Amino acid sequence: MAARCNSRWSLSGMTALVTGGTRGIGHATVEELAEMGATVHTCSRNEEELNQRLQEWKSKGFKVSGSVCDASSREQRVQLMEKVSSIFDGKLNILINNVGTNIRKPTVDYTAEEYSGIMSTNLESSYHLSQLAHPLLKASGNSSIVFISSVAGLVHLFSGSIYGATKGAINQLTKNLACEWAKDNIRVNCVAPWYIKTSLVKTLLENKEFLDRVVSRTPLKRPGEPEEVSSLVAFLCLPAASYITGQIICVDGGMTITLSLKSAIQLHESLTMSLVKVKSKSHQAECGSHPNTHACHGVSREVCTTSWSFLIGPRTTLLIFPTTWYSPIKRKDQANGPDRPLAFNVSTSHQLLRLHVGYMSLS
Ligand SMILES: NC(=O)c1ccc[n+]([C@@H]2O[C@H](COP(=O)([O-])OP(=O)(O)OC[C@H]3O[C@@H](n4cnc5c(N)ncnc54)[C@H](OP(=O)(O)O)[C@@H]3O)[C@@H](O)[C@H]2O)c1
């Protein structure tokens, strides 16, 4: 029993490449994987810092080597993978695509160079390194890729549209590769953090106003630590995670589970007064033709034709209708008087949240 446990929860004998391992999430991941028994190769651009880290890891007894490599350069990525192939005998069990960068600006202010820089560092490097690693991962017979994406690839944040686009693309790439490479016994997953205390966001989090905004959107009321991300990354690489593939898992203190509801409340505040004045007629056609309204949420056509639905996010529909016409959420003490209670249903692909918001006249 103990031996089975040990092998399921150990990376002993495995080889790993972690990009960007000298600081932040990459650094924590190198240590996590090495502590669990993996032999790790990492890379970064700053040679001095890389050598310092390699010394530290050596003194901790970790088996870690490193290369200077700018992951945004196609040529250097090829050289990196050649090195990895030579030190690990053409086989690799784990690829962690961690390198990423950001420039925060309004969309109209980005230059072409900034666009290319963020795209090549975040998306192209992950894509190309996965391509280059494929024969090595396949040769190992049992392997795993983990992308470090971001919650910015799932929901809108104040972190810039290019960054969000690269992370959204990585999320989708995770699903494509998980299906395409499952036959090669390569699992592909993605970890999407919210604010984590690293050098990438140090200046931002030192700004009290910014930190307050982050904390106010986080149920756990704090930013995360790099080790709170690396623990999940390592888990996804373990034999214990052998049936998990194609998943995007948030490490976000609960931030993403609150966002839809919050958006809906804000939307409600701005829309409610004008909505009640609108006659339902113009909405009947729109609502009746809305595919999700009937299929996903079990709302009857009768209710639907007397309600309003708005797509307020990629996976979120806000349904507004009088509860007196929708018996499952009608409260016993509510009479069919002129003041009818309204229910705001916030539906996502995962769940249906109901928010009873009070009374409003529809007459
Ligand atoms: N921190 C957050 O709040 C947060 C939130 C969501 C997602 N993420 C994602 O998590 C990943 C890691 O971020 P982090 O916060 O740990 O960043 P970080 O503290 O800035 O560390 C980045 C690491 O990657 C290396 N690196 C950066 N650009 C590189 C390049 N072009 N080629 C090779 N190495 C490079 C850096 O070393 P050199 O500079 O010496 O190259 C460093 O080791 C990124 O993909 C980021 O988008 C972070």
UniProtKB/TrEMBL annotation:
It holds the Pfam family adh_short_C2. Transmembrane segments: none annotated. It comes from the Eukaryota. Keywords: NADP, Oxidoreductase. InterPro entries: NAD(P)-bd_dom_sf, Sc_DH/Rdtase_CS, SDR_fam, TR. This is Tropinone reductase. It comes from Rehmannia glutinosa. The lineage of its organism: Eukaryota, Viridiplantae, Streptophyta, Embryophyta, Tracheophyta.
